[in-house]
């Protein structure tokens, strides 16, 4: 559609409207809008047509669009005027009100958007139309009418110049709707905005409150009225309530901000001003908006200046800048100077002061700002003058007076002392501004600190706190003063109010003080909660942490309290109190060493800090008591000495503190249980009133000192507890003097004092069961013997405390000593029921059982040792254990097995008796029993020492029988230690009357090597021997003496004489069998063994019998019988680790084919017993080497064996063998050896260990020689010829008489020649042959010569050498050598066959040699050689595959053998093109890590493709 067509369409639309064809007009307009969407005339015509078609919404939308397109054109509003005229015509034409009402409403809707054009004519049309619409509504008011009225009032109130019309409309609406609040609210808002609270305004407010007491506008008017009347509290309340109901009132918010500024609520004032600025955004009256915005920004700036924090100064400056852009009020400029000063921009503030003083010399604010600057710079005199000038200009401003008072407060020393000037100014400030809390705060401080009037100070502080509930300093002062004046309720009420209103992390001062209050009144949990809240406010306050620690400590939370005090110390390292409390808690928790360290740290800072000295003394005292409980008397004495040192220092600084003297008495009293010979304690001379620094006291003096310390404490403060301690101290002195056989009169005097002291304690506190119990103990002792009083005291103690296990036990002891067994049993029984773990009542029951001869006695004594250590229980149990051990007739009884073996009685009794003898050192019987138990435990040195102690105690004794017994025991223990001379002296002291003494000295002579004296003694013992068993033992000993003197036949004669006794002993038969083995007499050894095996013997003899039997079988050459004998013994006694260890040791030597089982046996021995396990671990490693196992696990076992037995040369030898085996395997697999240069180091270690261990010469030589051979072989194989040759020369020097070293040297030297593959001269061959002939009994020498001949192509000579070695091995009965010779012979023949030499001799030789080898034992190499022979004969035959597969897939073949078989099998399968079996074989090779076969597979596969 072209522009001409658009004009034509618009013309047609206009014509249609004129002709009242409105639908046709719409069609033309829509056609135009399709072409031009923003065509103004089209939208106007649509509005006219839609209005005529009674489509007001479409008409209104069209008019609105037209107005948006071109607000300046009046065509649309001309249409509105036309509409207005139309309504007028309809009205004149007699139209009804309903129709007119609808028309006026439509006109209002059309005019509503036009109001934004600010056209007065349109505004008047709009308002008139609204009034007409209201007036034309139904006569009876309804909801629609009410709604229309509200909309009209809401609209007209937006036009400030239409206030009269608005008032008129409100009054008319009030007439129609008298109970409706809306018109009154509109009027009130009008009065609020106008700022003129006339009588009319207050009347409207009252009427509105009558209708709605919670009306926002009405409450706002009342708040403004209260503000004008300076009723700030009421104003704040009413304004807050009103704005809560109606928050879109900027005047109300500004007034609330002003009120809050008056009340110094600056944060709240900022909020109110922000709300005022926010609500102004909804208004249209620019002049009103600017006016209120200036007011809000002014209050906002002043509030920000008053809020602490430099960041708020920027906000203040920002607000002031917005005002000062339009209003350069000097007071606002001075306010900006304060903002600069708040930001520490003193120069800018000073610049403002100068400018204001020049331009406005009478401006008080300028002088005030200058005063603030001077005050900030601490130029108080200049500040004083500036503030005075400000006050002179405006004397009614409280802030000026307050700052002048503050200046006086800090001015100088004189003013600070006087403070009267400051008081005057603070009083004026408080009078002028009743809400100035700071003024009241300083008044409170003045009355509290200067005037000393706490009541008046409290009043001032309360006023200050009422003004600002967030002022923690003032609140704290109010609470503290209230507490001081005894008004705890007020203090608690304030604290509760503050804490309830405080947010998280706020009001720390209140939480802290309430926490301390709850701590004081014993509400510990609440105290903890409050103090935790205080710490949330300031987690770095050490005082809070200390208070929290006290709270935790009060409710028993020691760990958390300790953490709190440690935190306080971390925050304040100088706080001694925190360190002290942490140490005290560690002391309570029993962490005495940690507590001591803390106390010492305190003393480094303050050496005279008495609580720390006292704490150190207590800690060492508690450690001493703990050491005494564990019978560590020496350590206890050290602790007692240190305790006395620190407590004496504390008492020296504070002698008036009674508890220090009591602790000193306790420390002295602790030595009562320690042996007097041990007690030599250094004590400060201060305790004796002397000037000497230290003085050494013995037990009696120390106990006496303890009594004097208790007496000193009683003089300072009489307490029943100290009287009781003093009585016990006198009793302990009596016990000591009695043991030392002192003067009886002194003992009686002390006992009387003890009784009187305890009676005094009972009189002072008759309800304390401990005092009654102590009185009973003293009354029942031998020196007093008042059993009636003792019984009465124990009963009174029980009455005082029903659960009194100690009193019941003591009562039982009293009955037991009086011979009243039944009553004693009942008393002990009750004590046991009250506390089953109480030790002494169990000891009492054990004594009762012993008295009546009960079989439960030993069990009861044992139970006492399980509960705890006690001297009576320890000695009693040791006595019963020793008695049971001495009775050798009960060894196989169940009672013996249970009491001694299962209950581990011997070690338990030994430990208990060791502690007993440490404590009680004058009991010879106890030392004798301890020596006896040490002997059983093989503690020979300890046994000799304890027997010696017993001998010393009985040296001057009249009881010679006991002395002789002890000397006999002593001599036996010395003999066991090898101290034969001392043992002989000990036996000679017994006069050699008893059989045991004679036998003992005979053994001592024997061990010394004096065989003649030993023989004489044994013969003397034989003459007086009573039993056949004793005679058999003596005859066996005599036979051993004969053998030692190289009289073998005589020894045999004596042993045969022993065997014909009626009761021959096992030892004699074992000796006879051993003699046969030593002399290689198989007949004698076999006969003795047969006789030995006839006796079943005991379990302890199984190992010896088995060892002898296997030795006999080995002598007979029955190697398989050796294993069977041990296996049979193991089967019968599977729990015997010695047998398992023996099996693991014998298997690799006699039946190496069963080495895998030998390794298992060694592992079992390790599991059963670590002692046997050390050797068994080594045997396990040897077995694993014998099986061809060279894995890391085996080496780990060997290293563990070396670690467990580093001094055993055999362990190092096995390690050397393992390294050699590993290097050999690595060489076979063409890998780099990891174990290099170890041979020399291990050989050196073996040599050193052999010398240190002092082995027999033959055994030492054998080990050292073997290790050298092994090392040389390893070095030679590794190609390190020079090193191997050096070791050979070393061997020749050490063993020059042995020709095999010469042969070994030749082997080493010859190796390079053989590797060169050159033909050797006949002379060299002859020399080598001579070297072998000089060692013709060595199988390996012939093997080496055969290798030399083979390298020279002398195959027949090589065969003859191997046959020579085979013959030699057969003659020597060396199965290993025989097997090795056969296999080497087979290998030689196989190599010749593989070289395709046509001779039937060699294939038959392979078959013959391997067959013979497999007859000896299972031989993997023999089977492999046969398979390879078959491969060489018929490579592609089925038999070849079968024989090779047997080696590859059957278990039991070493991996090295399997690898060779796998290699040939792979070649066979590729020749047969059997790819399925090839895949299976390569999978097997991968699983076993056979890289060599896998590489061959790749080559063959590539060749086949």
From TrEMBL:
Positions of TPR repeats: 40-73, 508-541, 542-575, 805-838
Keywords of this entry: Repeat, TPR repeat
GO biological process: RNA catabolic process
Cited InterPro entries: Ski3/TTC37, TPR-like_helical_dom_sf, TPR_rpt
Domain of life: Eukaryota
Protein name: Superkiller complex protein 3 isoform X2
Keyword Repeat: yes
Organism this protein belongs to: Pantherophis guttatus
PANTHER family in the cross-refs: SUPERKILLER 3 PROTEIN-RELATED, SUPERKILLER COMPLEX PROTEIN 3
Family matches, as Gene3D superfamilies: Tetratricopeptide repeat domain
GO cellular component: Ski complex
SMART domains reported for this sequence: TPR
A Pfam family recorded for this sequence: TPR_16
């Amino acid at each position: 559609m072209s522009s001409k067509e658009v004009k034509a369409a618009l013309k047609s639309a206009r014509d249609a409207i004129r002709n009242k064809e409105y639908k046709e007009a719409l069609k033309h307009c829509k056609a135009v809008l399709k072409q031009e969407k923003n065509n103004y005339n089209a939208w106007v015509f649509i509005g006219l047509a839609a209005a005529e078609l009674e489509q007001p919404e479409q008409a209104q939308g069209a008019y609105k669009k037209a107005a948006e397109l071109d607000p300046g054109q009046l065509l649309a509003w001309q249409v509105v005027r036309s509409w207005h005229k139309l309504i007028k015509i309809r009205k004149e034409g007699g139209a009804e009100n309903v129709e007119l009402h609808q028309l006026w409403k439509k006109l209002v809707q059309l005019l509503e958007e036009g109001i934004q054009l600010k056209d007065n004519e349109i505004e008047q049309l709009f308002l008139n139309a609204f009034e007409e619409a209201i007036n034309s509504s139904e006569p009876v008011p309804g909801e629609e009418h009410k709604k229309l009225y509200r909309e009209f009032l809401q609209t007209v109130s937006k036009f400030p110049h239409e206030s009269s019309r608005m008032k008129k409309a409100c009054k008319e609406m009030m007439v129609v709707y008298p109970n409706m609040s809306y018109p009154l609210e509109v009027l009130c808002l009008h009065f609020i905005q106008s700022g003129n609270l006339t009588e009319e305004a207050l009347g409207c407010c009252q009427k509105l409150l009558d209708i709605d007491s919670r009306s926002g506008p009405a409450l706002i008017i009342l708040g403004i009225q209260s503000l004008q009347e300076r009723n700030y509290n009421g104003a704040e309340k009413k304004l807050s309530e009103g704005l809560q109901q109606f928050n879109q009132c900027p005047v109300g918010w500004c007034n609330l901000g002003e009120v809050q500024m008056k009340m110094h609520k600056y944060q709240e004032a900022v909020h109110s001003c922000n709300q005022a600025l926010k609500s102004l955004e909804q208004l249209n009256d620019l002049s009103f908006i600017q006016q209120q915005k200036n007011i809000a920004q002014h209050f906002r700036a002043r509030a920000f200046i008053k809020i602490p924090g430099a960041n708020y100064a920027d906000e203040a400056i920002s607000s002031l800048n917005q005002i000062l852009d339009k209003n350069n009020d000097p007071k606002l400029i001075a306010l900006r100077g304060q903002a600069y000063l708040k930001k520490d921009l003193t120069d800018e503030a000073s610049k403002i002061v100068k400018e204001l003083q020049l331009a406005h010399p009478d401006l008080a604010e300028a002088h005030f700002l200058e005063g603030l600057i001077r005050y900030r710079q601490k130029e108080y005199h200049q500040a004083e003058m500036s503030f005075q000038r400000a006050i002179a200009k405006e004397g009614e401003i409280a802030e000026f007076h307050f700052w002048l008072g503050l200046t006086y407060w800090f001015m100088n020393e004189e003013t600070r002392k006087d403070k009267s000037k400051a008081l005057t100014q603070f009083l004026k400030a408080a009078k002028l501004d009743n809400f100035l809390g700071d003024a009241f705060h300083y008044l409170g401080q003045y009355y509290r600190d200067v005037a000393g009037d706490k009541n008046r100070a409290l009043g001032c502080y309360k006023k200050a706190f009422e003004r600002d509930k967030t002022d923690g300093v003032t609140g704290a002062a109010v609470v503290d003063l209230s507490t001081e004046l005894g008004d705890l309720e007020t203090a608690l009420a304030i604290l509760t109010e503050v804490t309830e209103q405080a947010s998280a992390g706020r009001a720390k001062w209140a939480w802290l003080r309430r926490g301390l209050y709850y701590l004081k009144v014993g509400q510990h949990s609440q105290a903890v909660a409050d103090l935790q809240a205080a710490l949330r406010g300031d987690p770095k306050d050490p005082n809070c942490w200390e208070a929290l620690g006290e709270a935790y400590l009060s409710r028993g939370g020691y760990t958390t309290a300790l953490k709190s005090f440690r935190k306080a110390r971390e925050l304040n390292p100088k706080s001694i109190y925190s360190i002290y409390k942490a140490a005290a808690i560690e002391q309570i928790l029993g962490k005495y060493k940690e507590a001591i360290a803390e106390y010492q740290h305190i003393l480094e800072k303050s050496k005279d800090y008495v609580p720390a000295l006292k704490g150190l003394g207590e800690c060492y005292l508690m450690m001493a008591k703990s050491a005494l409980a564990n019978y560590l008397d020496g350590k206890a004495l050290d602790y007692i000495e240190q305790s006395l040192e620190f407590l004496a220092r504390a008492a020296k600084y504070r002698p008036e503190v009674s508890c220090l003297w009591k602790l000193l008495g306790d420390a002295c009293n602790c030595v009562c249980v320690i042996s007097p010979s041990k007690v030599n304690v250094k004590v400060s001379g201060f305790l004796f009133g002397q000037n000497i620094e230290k003085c050494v006291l013995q037990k009696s003096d120390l106990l006496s000192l303890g009594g004097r310390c208790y007496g000193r404490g009683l003089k300072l403060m009489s307490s029943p507890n100290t009287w009781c301690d003093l009585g016990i101290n006198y009793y302990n002195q009596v016990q000591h003097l009695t043991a030392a056989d002192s003067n009886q009169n002194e003992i009686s005097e002390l006992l009387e004092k003890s009784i009187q002291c305890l009676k005094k304690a009972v009189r002072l506190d008759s309800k304390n069961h401990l005092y009654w119990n102590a009185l009973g103990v003293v009354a029942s002792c031998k020196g007093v013997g008042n059993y009636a009083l003792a019984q009465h005291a124990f009963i009174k103690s029980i009455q005082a405390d029903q659960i009194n296990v100690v009193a019941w036990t003591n009562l039982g002891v009293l009955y037991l000593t009086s011979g009243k067994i039944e009553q004693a049993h009942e008393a002990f029984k009750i004590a046991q029921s009250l506390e089953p773990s109480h030790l002494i009542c169990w000891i009492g029951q054990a004594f009762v059982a012993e008295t009546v001869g009960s079989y439960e006695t030993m069990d009861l004594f044992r139970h006492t040792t399980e509960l705890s250590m006690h001297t009576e229980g320890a000695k009693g149990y040791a006595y019963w254990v020793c008695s049971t051990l001495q009775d050798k007739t009960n060894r196989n009884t169940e009672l013996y097995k249970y009491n001694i073996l299962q209950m581990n009685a011997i070690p338990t009794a030994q430990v208990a008796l060791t502690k007993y003898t440490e404590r009680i050192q004058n009991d010879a019987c106890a030392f004798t029993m301890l020596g006896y138990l040490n002997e059983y435990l093989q503690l020979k040195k300890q046994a000799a020492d304890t027997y010696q102690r017993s001998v010393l105690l009985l040296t001057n004794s009249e009881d010679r029988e006991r002395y002789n017994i002890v000397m006999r025991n002593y001599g036996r223990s010395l003999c066991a230690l090898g101290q034969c001379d001392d043992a002989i002296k000990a036996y000679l002291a017994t006069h050699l009357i008893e059989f045991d003494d004679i036998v003992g000295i005979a053994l001592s002579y024997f061990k010394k090597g004096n065989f003649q004296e030993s023989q004489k003694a044994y013969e003397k013992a034989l003459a007086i021997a009573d039993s056949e068993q004793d005679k058999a033992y003596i005859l066996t000993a005599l036979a051993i003496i004969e053998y030692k003197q190289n009289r073998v036949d005589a020894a045999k004669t004596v042993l045969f004489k022993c065997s014909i006794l009626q009761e021959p002993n096992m030892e004699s038969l074992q000796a006879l069998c051993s003699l046969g083995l030593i002399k290689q007499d198989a007949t004698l050894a076999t006969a003795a063994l047969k006789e030995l095996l006839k006796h079943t013997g005991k379990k302890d003899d199984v190992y010896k019998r088995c060892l002898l039997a296997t030795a006999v079988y080995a002598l007979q050459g029955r190697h398989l019988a050796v294993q069977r004998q041990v296996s049979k013994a193991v089967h019968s006694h599977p729990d015997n680790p010695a047998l398992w260890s023996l099996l693991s040791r014998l298997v690799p030597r006699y039946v190496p084919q069963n080495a895998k089982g030998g390794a298992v046996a060694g592992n079992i021995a390790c599991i059963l017993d670590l002692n046997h396990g050390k050797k068994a671990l080594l045997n396990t490693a040897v077995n694993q080497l014998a099986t061809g196992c060279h894995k890391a696990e085996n080496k780990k076992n060997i290293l563990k064996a070396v670690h467990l037995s580093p001094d055993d040369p055999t362990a190092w030898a096995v390690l050397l063998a393992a390294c050699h085996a590993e290097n050999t395997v690595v060489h076979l697999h063409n890998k780099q050896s990891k174990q290099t240069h170890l041979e020399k180091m291990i050989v050196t270690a073996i040599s050193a260990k052999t010398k240190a261990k002092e082995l027999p010469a033959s055994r030492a030589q054998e080990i050292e020689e073997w290790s050298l051979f092994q090392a040389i072989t390893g070095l030679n194989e590794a190609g390190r010829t020079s090193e191997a040759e050096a070791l050979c020369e070393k061997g020749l020097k050490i063993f020059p008489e042995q020709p095999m070293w010469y042969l070994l040297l030749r082997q080493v030297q010859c190796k390079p020649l053989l590797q060169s593959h050159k033909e050797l001269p006949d002379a060299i061959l002859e020399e080598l042959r001579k070297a072998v002939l000089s060692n013709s009994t060595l199988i390996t020498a012939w093997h080496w010569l055969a290798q030399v001949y083979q390298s020279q192509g002398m195959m027949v000579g090589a065969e003859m050498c191997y046959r020579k070695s085979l013959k030699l091995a057969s003659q020597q009965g060396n199965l290993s050598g025989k097997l090795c010779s056969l296999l080497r012979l087979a290998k030689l023949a196989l190599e010749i066959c593989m070289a395709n030499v046509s001779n039937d001799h060699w294939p038959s030789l392979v078959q013959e040699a391997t067959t013979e080898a497999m007859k000896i034992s299972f031989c993997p190499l023999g089977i492999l050689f046969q398979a390879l022979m078959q491969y060489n004969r018929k490579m592609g035959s089925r038999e070849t595959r079968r024989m090779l597969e047997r080696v590859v897939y059957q278990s039991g073949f070493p991996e090295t053998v399997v690898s060779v078989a796998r290699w040939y099998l792979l070649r066979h399968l590729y020749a047969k093109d059997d790819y399925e079996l090839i895949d299976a074989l390569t999978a097997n090779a991968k699983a076993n890590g056979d890289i060599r076969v896998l590489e061959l597979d790749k080559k063959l596969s590539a060749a086949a493709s």
